[in-house]
Amino acid sequence: MTPPSIASRLLPWYQQSGRHDLPWRQSRDPYLLYLAEIMLQQTRVETVKPYFRRFLARFPSWQALADASLDEVLALWSGLGYYARARNAHAAARMVVDRFQGEFPTDLVQALELPGVGRSTAAAVLASAYGQRQAILDANARRVLFRYHGLTGSMRSPQNERLLWQLAEQETPAMAHDYNQAIQDLGALLCLSRKARCDECPLLGPCAGPCEPTQIPQPEKPVRYACFLLLRTEDGCVLLEKRPNRGIWGGLWALPWYALAGANEVPELAETLRNWAREEYGLRPQLGEWHSWQRHTFTHFHLEYRVIEADISVYGVGEGRRALFPFAPEQLAQLALPSPLRRLFS
DNA sequence: AAGCCGTGGAG
DNA sequence: TCTCCAAGGCT
């Protein structure tokens, strides 16, 4: 007892009610479509729009992106999050230029060789850029297919994962480009995760209804504590260090991060910080004002941090184990900074 | 396979 | 204030 195909009802609705004004909707440029797909991973459309505009203006082609420094790429990604996407996009552009003759692959297997391009992203680009019949399975398509076919259990269970991909392939018509956009619009506009607007849905009837996947209880996020050292030189520069490409804020510029065991004040914390600054960075800062506690939530932990101001009179690069670089206040806006630091400096 | 990787809006 | 979650992919 299989329900009728989704496409027959979905496509007319899409023509009428779809989001046809999105900046990447009209183009068939593989580079532009690729960039949109990467930025949209785990990220809302409205958040992406201004980043997409700026990024495309500065890096309008594979070649432009490949020629850029990673530092500048990250600077334009700053605030968008999941910075591995930017590092991967930079590497992918170089791979397209060097290995694929400057063209996004037309073959799914080759597209999957690009770092940061998984099955759904590759399929989305091949469908929209080249008109191929390729099925996507993003959060929207997942939710729509899950409900339409009345699935039960967890969305992410291996069984449902296989089943959802199978359904995605099965439902995707030859006009995959329009269908892929349409099912994403349906998920974003009507088939919402919390309150599905079934009364307006073109799939009402054959759809099994707004059945919900069984929620896997998410483990509580642990809280970590830290203080950030805001070091200023006598000529007003701020000292920043480049974070390693792995881990939180990979490749971005940040303040020295001293991990604390807890939120409780330690009597000798100032002395500890001075010793740490000397051993790690070769500095002898004069500590100043504490900022108030702030909370920043990452994917898998909360960070409670406070900034402490500090002045240094003598500064030389390379005196400690870890390098710090001075930046004048007017330079900071152009840097690849994580959001909390962009706020701090603004 | 499950943990890792950001951020901001919605409720 | 807090949790949830959004055009996922990598290790």
Detailed description of the structure:
With 346 residues, the protein is α+β, with helices and mostly antiparallel strands. The chain folds into two domains: 6-200, Orthogonal Bundle (Endonuclease III, domain 1); 223-345, Nucleoside Triphosphate Pyrophosphohydrolase (Alpha-Beta Complex), CATH 3.90.79. Helices cover 41% and strands 12% of the residues. The protein is built from 13 helices and eight strands. The strands form two sheets. Strands 1, 4, 5, 6 and 7 form a five-stranded mixed beta sheet that branches. Strands 3-2-8 form a three-stranded antiparallel beta sheet, with no helix packed on it. A hairpin with a 4-residue loop joins strand 6 and strand 7. The protein is elongated. The chain binds a DNA duplex (11 and 11 nucleotides) through residues 36-48, 79-85, 88, 115-121, 124, 136, 138-141, 158, 180, 184, 187-188, 193-195, 218, 221, 247-250, 296-300, 338-339. Its EC number is 3.2.2.31. Pfam families: HhH-GPD, NUDIX_4.
* Major sheet summary line: 5 strands, mixed
Q: Which architecture name of the largest domain does CATH use? A: Orthogonal Bundle
Mean pLDDT reading:
95
What percent of residues are in strands? 5-15%
Roughly what percent helix? 40-55%
List low-confidence stretches: none
Judged by helices, strands and strand pairing, the structural class is alpha+beta
Shape: elongated
Q: Would you list the SSEs in sequence order as H and E?
A: HHHHHHHHHHHEEEEHEEEEH
Let me know the number of strands.
Answer: 8
Q: Whole-number radius of gyration?
A: 24 Å
Q: Assign the CATH class of the largest domain.
A: Mainly Alpha
Query: What is the CATH superfamily of the largest domain?
Result: Hypothetical protein, domain 2
CATH topology of the largest domain, by name, is: Endonuclease III, domain 1
Distance between the termini: 60 Å
This entry's quaternary arrangement is single chain
Q: Quickly count the helices.
A: 13
- Count of the domains: 2
